[in-house]
Amino acid sequence: MSLKIKKGDKIIVIAGKDKGKTGKVLKFNRIKERLIAEGINIVKKHARRRSESEQGGIKEIPAQIHASNVKLFCSNCNKGVRFGIKISDDKTKARICKKCQRVI
Length: 104
Known about the structure:
Layout: E1 10-13, E2 22-29, E3 34-37, E4 42-47, E5 57-62, E6 65-66, E7 70-74, E8 79-81, E9 83-87, E10 93-97
Antiparallel strand pairs: 1-2, 1-7, 2-3, 3-6, 4-5, 7-8, 9-10
């Protein structure tokens, strides 16, 4: 399942401190099966000032989360869903929601 999540997908967190939050995938590491999503798993990082123009201090950045803790979000069902792959007549693949059978 985790290898079918791609950059740009809308996901929902199903486990951890951010359970229930939704966001868009910014990066996905296929080897480690971890992803970075917009607005999910925000951590504070202390940054040192490197130049005169750059400002130091505490910055909030999104950290990685394991792919097993997220599900694809179906906007029609309005929740996290399992999905399948449907091959159309012209040999193109599309991911569909198992519940409502609509393209995600």
